[in-house]
Amino acid sequence: xxxxxxxxxxxxxxxxxxxxxxxxxxxxxxxxxxxxxxxxxxxxxxxxxxxxxxxxxxxxxxxxx
Length: 65
Fold this sequence. Notes:
The chain is mainly β. It has strands spanning about 10-15, 20-30, 35, 55, 60. It has one domain: Roll (SH3 type barrels).
């Protein structure tokens, strides 16, 4: 994905070069990285209350798997 395709609250999944895919929600973004909440104890509706990980948008795909 590109930064221009991102929206706050968007469901995405992270595609690592090695390892498993991981679902997340975009919390915010800037001109270089997306800040994505990956782990929130299943409380996805409260994603804004959890810490987001900076993620390269090129490693994200739209939707959950």
